[in-house]
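Render this sequence as a predicted structure.
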Amino acid sequence: HKTKRSIYLYTCQQTNPICQQELRGCRQTFDRHPTFCFIIFMIFHILIGIISIGFTNDIREYKIRYDDKCGLSETNPTGTADIYFNNPPLSGNIFFYFELHDYYQTYFLMARHLSIEGIRGRLEDYPVECETNNKTTIACEIFNKIFFLDCYEILNGNFSELDITWRHTKGNLYKEAEGPYEDSSNWILHPNVSDYFSGEALNEHFIVWMRIAAKPNFRKLYSKSSDGCPANLHVHVHCFYPYTLYHGERYLVLLKPDGLGGKSLMLAIFNFILSGVIVVFIVAFETIKLIHSKKIKRRVLKNNELVI
């Protein structure tokens, strides 16, 4: 509407830079130059990727399947075997794992099979030592159902099964047993396993096992050495976990990690991809900046302004 103060009454105000948003301060412009920072970040991530690949080449891993060597079958659910790794002498920190394939450890898949009625319905799967007063101890049954019983004796290496858990886990998340399972006889898993399993809830193999794996193929740390290991490591395997409960593949893994821990190939790939993304940002930014500067120059020349 035309009023006394309307700009429609004053033609000069209609073309005023303030009204038409032609002022330099009212437009977005690239007054800063982040290209240099982008280049620094790109070089940093490329170096991290190269270092990760270099560390990955330092990893030494030796893996052997052993369930077939134990001769497991439906008629022979348990067994023993001698495993020899084809490894040279290794120095430094060495980690000894067991690896399971197609074993679903997650609670939501196991819970449907862990009802008390379901456990008590299969008493024949558990040793006689678990029975008390014609009733099976629930703790003992659950252990035999979900706790992996295979044991490994390293015969020619200085390996320790202590301190294989996460820090502050033992004594905080897992404490001394209280309540109905104080008697250690409730925790006996198998007549031959009692020599390898002690400490009940504070047993470090139990703590490591109860750190639930999210995928069906996973590894669990069994022992470690800070003094390296000799060539052709000799391991005597006791396949106590019955074949009738688990038909998947079982492996032993001997690992000498790199300076970053485990395999770092994914870290290298991630850094290279991130470097590529930064390059795209640099090209896009410089292109937008060039187009914007040309528009400003054309506008200045059109209005016969002095270019400084």
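Summary. The longest helix spans residues 265-302. The helical segments are 11-14, 35-56, 107-110, 116-120, 138-146, 204-209, 265-302.
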